[in-house]
Amino acid sequence: MLPGARRDRRPTDTPAGRWCTVTRPGGSASTAASTCAALLSIGPDGSFGMDASISYLIQILNGVQYGFLLFLVASGLTLVFGIMGVVNLAHGAFYMVGAYLAFWLSTVTGSFALAILIGVPISVLLGLVVERIGFTHLYHRDHLYQVLFTFGLILVIGELRAILWGNDVHGVAVPPLLSGSVVLTETQSYPIYRLFISVACLAAAVVLAAVIKTTRLGMMIRASATNREMVQVLGLNVDRLFMVVFGLGIGLAAFAGMIAAPVSSVHPGMGDEILIVSFVVVVIGGVGSIMGAFWGAMLIGLADTFGAVLLPGAGGAVVYALMALVLAWRPNGLFAGR
Hints:
The chain has about 350 residues and is mainly alpha-helical. The chain has a single domain (about 50-165, about 190-330), classed as ABC transporter involved in vitamin B12 uptake, BtuC. The chain contains twelve helices and two strands. A two-stranded antiparallel ribbon has the order 1-2. Helix 2 (about 50-85) packs across helix 10, helix 6 crosses helix 7 and helix 10 (about 270-285) crosses helix 11 (about 290-310). It is globular, with a radius of gyration of 20 Å. One of its GO terms (biological process) is amino acid transport. One of its GO terms (molecular function) is transmembrane transporter activity. It is found in: Cell membrane. Belongs to the binding-protein-dependent transport system permease family. LivHM subfamily.
């Protein structure tokens, strides 16, 4: 294990508890059952308790926050597939790497902000190296080769993670400056750090949209997504463009993992969990569409949050039911080609 990587056993959050932040005096997070009771305006003891409108507002905020995180991961995924034509099953592994970097670097430096400032460039550099060594040889090959390579990459990253940080579950402390809560009622509050996650993700989304719509790099990205062969004929360095796009996608995934680390446990399987949901977001929004990734992430974030709270036994099915409905209506996704 790397120096400074401490063992910190912490139980993995439940699907509902991961995003539920209805709190009581004393600061402990409520379970899915008490959250569901709050939404029905009935306290856990059977008496009428918290105001339903505030409880719904909390869950909406949770869903939007989760949606923003999904957008960061899914936007990189849809860029890589839509522009480079590469099926990157290892995308979730880089989300996991970002979370572990946040854990390790914050332990070594003592600063979560410094961990992000150091970790994001490391992740982007890692993405550039992986693209040059492996993906550059797969662009003109069948998707089966890409799937096999990225599956092998998942195994390699998993083994390296086990060597460097072990297989234990870790926790990342919320920065003291963001550790407070916004009081909503006498019995309910909302963590400031979750609001910070939404703001940080929104800022990243605005910067990404500005880059794609207003810069020369964005023009080349949009042109490559529309007609890759014509871009090559015009003399643009497509190989360099692909390297930049891949590094950007990996950086977004790693950044999402870093800022998500303090609100969820850092554990070996977290990349697989986010990858599956991110593919659902890409399919719903439309492959290659950043706008589609955004709105798809918002839909899935809200569906997953309310599904986990209102239907604890079948919350995960809500996400896939939503995907089925969208594809039945628009088979290519909501914003395909946009």
